[in-house]
Amino acid sequence: MTPFDFLSIGHSNIPAERFVTLLRDAGAHTVADVRSLPASRHFPWFSKKNLATLLGDARIGYVAMGDTLGGRPRDAHLYRDGVADYEAMAMQPEFRAGVEQLQDAATGSCVCLLCAEREPLDCHRCILVARHLAERGATIGHILHDGTVEAHASTERRLLAIEEREADLFATGQRERLAAAYRRRARAVAYRRTLPAPKAAKRR
To answer: Which of these, 2, 21, 15, lies nearest to 150 by C-alpha position?
Structure first.
């Protein structure tokens, strides 16, 4: 039995059988897909319908939650300079409802967050969703591709070490330093919306 309330994994290019093995070995019972677009052109076994079938055959549940917990918001107001604003997204009622749905689903079952990026610190499942689950007292383990499971607290220590060079000199407390590190990392890895090219001025 897993010691964590939640798990997370990034599918990247993992073969289907290896992916199922990683989930089973970590103790996952249900996969919560937090991709805004649950499809993969290069790895079709991770597209929504195929993935649900793959997991069902392995007796692992599947639920798509990209509409509330995805990293690519549809609302233009949730972007800052074309970059998804995780802090603004976390304030939305839909996001909060999604987190609460995760917590309800985790009662008596270990839920694993799924997105695409291999490295947790490159993905909103960690920088956005797991962060807010942890702030609510949940424990999260990130499944790495070598089969080890990294506690979210250890992931946060890695985040601080990575971002220390850009540290906010005025953020003296641990909580402030961590919040600043999350903010910088989010700006670096969050989804960037392609803005339409400006229209050329009409010649007179």
So the answer is: 2
User: Percent of the chain scored above 90 by pLDDT?
Assistant: 82
- Secondary element (H or E) of residue 154: helix 152-163
* Phi and psi angles of residue 23, each rounded to the nearest 5 degrees, phi first: -65, -45
Tokens representing 139?
């424990």
- pLDDT tens string 15-32: 999 999 999 999 999 999
| pLDDT of res. 169 | 47
Domains and CATH numbers, the chain: 6-152 (3.90.190)
Enter the tokens of residue 88. 């603004």
What is the distance, to the nearest Å, from the Cα of residue 158 to the centroid of all Cα atoms in its chain? 16
Specify the pLDDT at position 2. 80
